[in-house]
């Protein structure tokens, strides 16, 4: 073993979570996306977007992080989707609009204290896909985000040793 001190840039990786926490991540991600997919099939209403997969990572594997709180998940998704839809409807669907909408989404989430990294992809998705319909704001975005938060709340309550989640609501 080397006696040289570790560089400040080379530190050990975080400890592996306990198996029950890993199982919660698996169950939460599977149940969250599974329920959204099932509801989408039953109702013929689209409820899935790619950024919800990343939201599940925060909700079920990093639940204590400020970025994983209900106000951040719901507020971040709704806010950035609104900005993306406004940008494409007012300015068109160029790559510059895509960049501008993404930057505005990030700044708005910061200003309103609802930063949720997965939501940062929503303006990008909207402008690249050429989505113009305001209904996208309600389904899948608002409905899906609320359903994921409800599933997270339920799973965190059903744990053998429930965790304090959400850490805050507002």
TrEMBL record:
Keywords from UniProt, A to Z, are: Membrane, Transmembrane, Transmembrane helix
- Tell me where the transmembrane regions lie: 21-41, 47-67, 79-112, 132-155
Q: Which residues form the HPP transmembrane region domain?
A: 15-160
Q: Which Pfam families match?
A: TM_HPP
Organism (species): Zymobacter palmae
What is this protein's name?
CBS-domain-containing membrane protein
Q: Which InterPro entries match?
A: HPP (IPR007065), TM_HPP (IPR058581)
